Amino acid sequence: MDADMTRSGHLLKLTCLTAAAMVLVTGCTSNSLPSLPKATPQPSLTKNINQYKYLIGPGDTLNIFVWGNPEISGAYIVRPDGMLTTSLVDDIPASGRTPTELAGSIEARLAEYVRDPIVSVIVQGFVGPYSEQVRVIGEAQQPMAINYRENMTLLDVMVAVGGLTDFADGNDARLIRVVNGQQRAYGLNLGNLLRDGEIGDNVDILPGDIIIIPEAWF
């Protein structure tokens, strides 16, 4: 009986020492890991918000129609690197351009094979560049990235994400915006806007804005 108790005591002590060693090693490892560089601020490619035009992004589905040449027309997806390849045109930059700009570039490239080509580019699946998306994270009902739309406001964004959760501290929310190449934080009163109907707390949203909604401390 004493031998069993002694053996059990040794096993318990060994287990405790092993666990302590693992905690110590984990702590030392995490403290010694180098820090990654901060994310590079990506300013919006939209130069004039009053003349907003949709910009193509990776993942967009484009219907490219070449007049009089159905055999080289079709639907194509912009690659993750922002490039586009069609029947006769390889690796043409598409991301960050308007459909009209892209159509002009395709016409210039097709002129080598087709006489006086006329191209139409129609966006079927809207994704857009990351720099133009509005992202909502934290205590929203449906945190997500949203394609910016002309004249979009904070209220429009919150309707798209389903409003606040029951645990949200809406009046401590923050909006992150890139201004002159630097990220700046602005306060938002989402609680007043959504729960009290204070429409004066509605603000304009710009392409690339990030909205962070923290959890309330009860």
TrEMBL record:
KW Signal (keyword) present: yes
UniProt-listed InterPro entries: PEP-CTERM_polysacc_export, Poly_export, Poly_export_N, Soluble_ligand-bd
Keyword Signal appears in the UniProt entry: yes
Alphabetically ordered keywords of this record: Signal
Any matching Pfam family: Poly_export
Domain Polysaccharide export protein N-terminal intervals: 50-123
Domain Soluble ligand binding: 134-181
Official protein name in the record: Polysaccharide biosynthesis/export family protein
